[in-house]
Specification:
Blueprint: H1 5-43, H2 48-56, H3 66-74, H4 79-107, H5 109-131, H6 138-170, H7 176-200, H8 208-233, H9 239-242
């Protein structure tokens, strides 16, 4: 029995509808695969913990950014003094870009990164500890915080250079751009979290809480990188190798890309 024209038309429209639904589903699956693929590669990378520790450091208010500058202005410091402290901080950061390649050339990027982040954690912890000591005069507490932040920038920039060198060495050139883009996304996420801390603790007399959270994040980053060192080296410190001369090739700072703000 022959089918009527109407039945044939109905069957054709149903087939077209199924084909369209299948095509849309394929587009969705392709889109989702494109989203998860960079993250899958990132979390399977041999330098995951090193990169993740660098990302966590973006959860901080302990830098001369809008949050800390706003607090300093509300505490009575003039713009001239804040500009001077910020200038000193920039000079210190530039000094770190000079010291990092020398240290990497002597002890290697892994050990230099470990030393730098340990230095950063210690300086930030001491500065915040004094800042949270309520028995001292506020101006002295603020100066101690500023000094700790400035000195910690040596560790931050040196650590950044060392980790980026490790990324360029360990991540294949084919996936390096994808890895760096995923890393930047995580850095932006932690930076947004740092702004969330000052949104929650928005009063000047509550700045100690974002500062403590920042030190906690730095400590967590330190622990992450410590685990990376133990996984790759099996130990944290080896005097005979660390102090040996000309163990590593000197690194040119121009070969390493900085990501620290």
């Amino acid at each position: 029995m022959e089918l009527s024209d109407h039945a044939l038309e109905t069957m054709g429209s149903q087939d077209a509808s199924r084909s369209g639904q299948k095509s849309n589903l394929e587009h969705v699956l392709t889109y989702l695969n494109g989203i998860q693929s960079p993250w899958y590669g990132y979390f399977r990378s041999p330098v995951l913990l090193a990169s993740l520790s660098l990302c966590i450091l973006y959860l901080t208010v302990l830098s001369f950014n809008a949050q800390m500058v706003t607090y300093l202005l509300s505490s009575g410091l003039t713009a001239i003094w804040i500009s001077l402290f910020r200038l000193i901080s920039v000079v210190v950061e530039l000094g770190a870009t000079w010291a990092a390649p020398i240290l990497m050339g002597r002890v290697g990027p892994t050990r230099s990164a470990f030393w730098f982040i340990t230095w950063q954690t210690a300086c930030a912890a001491v500065g915040v500890a004094v800042f949270c000591t309520v028995t001292l005069e506020l101006r002295l507490r603020i100066l101690a915080l500023i000094a700790g932040v400035i000195m910690s920038r040596i560790g931050l920039w040196g650590f950044d250079l060392s980790v980026q060198y490790l990324v360029q060495e360990e991540v294949s050139s084919n996936s390096r751009s994808q890895f760096s883009a995923t890393e930047a996304a995580l850095q932006n996420l932690f930076e947004m979290l740092s702004f969330a801390t000052t949104s929650i603790f928005s009063k000047p007399d509550q700045f100690q809480y974002p500062a403590l959270i920042s030190v906690g994040a730095t400590a967590v980053a330190n622990l992450c990188f410590t685990q990376y060192v133990k996984q790759n080296r099996g130990h944290l410190f080896h005097p005979s190798r660390c102090l040996a001369k000309q163990k590593y090739t000197t690194v040119d700072v121009g070969d390493v890309e900085l990501t620290t703000r």
